[in-house]
Amino acid sequence: MTRKTVILIGAPVDSGKRRPGCLMGPDAYRTAGLPGALRDLGYKVEDMGNLTPASHQPDTNDGKLFAPNETIAWTHRLTRTAEMAMQRGLPIFMGGDHSLSLGTVAGVANHAASVGRPLFVLWLDAHSDFHTAETTDSGNLHGTPLGYVTGREGFGGFPKVQNRVPHANICIMGLRSVDPAERAALEETDIRYHDMREIDENGVGRLVSAFLKDVEAANGLLHVSLDVDFLDPMAAPAVVTTVPGGATIREGHLIMEMVSDSGLMTSLDLVELNPFLDERGRTAQVMVDLAASGLGRRVFDRPTRAAN
Ligand SMILES: NC(=[NH2+])NCCC[C@H](N)C(=O)O
Ligand SMILES: [Mn+2]
Ligand SMILES: [Mn+2]
């Protein structure tokens, strides 16, 4: 049997917000043992090292948007890299802040179109990241990737999105901080979004399984984008945009284990880790463990029986 290949791609993107530190993310994931954890699960692991953005004019940062040139340059680089990596294995994009997903999701969507399958996206995040470069209040482009990949207008200067992700193929879980402009735009779409209250009332299992069923029925590819701030800050402190009241580590594992059971995930982003804010690497470790669950790590080999 040929072993499945996981391609680790360091994307030290730090241009999506003002406070630096996410550039150290890829090396923190390596230090926390991501490559070894995947090898232990039986994968062939290739590490492409850390990428750099395409060449670009330096940002002046005298306008509303922070570092647009650099983020556009990363979007170019990551779109191409994602397209290439998808042909060879399952890419894990080790961020980097969430603006990296403008490129990774756009590239994965191009790949999905080229193989004639629909792309689905599971977005695990306290935020909906559905702004455009025009609606953002903060000017931080890490708040815009879902707006971009769904083809919203208001991204002048960015590469044109070739294959939009259809709204109905997106599921956002973990919401507890949505800006008014994002909320209004989101409510006009049929994107499914589950805030923390819905998670509390239903449990993550039920919500995720409904989505995974649809991915399977459509023979879709599944991209998972895991933002550190999906988790509660007590469990995962190493992120700038903490919002209290987030998911537990167990909820994170259940989602990732169910994703793995489904066999549907074809690419993964690990984003927003700021190792400068971490406590002895514990957030990096939680993210590595969640990634491992998503790729098949189990407490027991056989599925444990549900209570009824
Ligand atoms: N990927 C993230 N952490 N995004 C946070 C975005 C926060 C806020 N909505 C903004 O646009 O500035
Ligand atoms: Mn995010
Ligand atoms: Mn977030």
Automatic annotation (TrEMBL):
Cite the entry's keywords alphabetically: Arginine metabolism, Hydrolase, Manganese, Metal-binding
* Organism field: Seohaeicola zhoushanensis
List the pathway annotation. Nitrogen metabolism; urea cycle; L-ornithine and urea from L-arginine: step 1/1
Its name, as the record gives it, is Arginase
InterPro entries per the record? Answer: Arginase, Ureohydrolase, Ureohydrolase_dom_sf, Ureohydrolase_Mn_BS
Q: Which family does it belong to?
A: Belongs to the arginase family.
Gene3D superfamilies named in the record: Ureohydrolase domain
Q: Which residues bind Mn(2+)?
A: H98, D125, H127, D129, D227, D229
Q: Please name the Pfam families in this protein's record.
A: Arginase (PF00491)
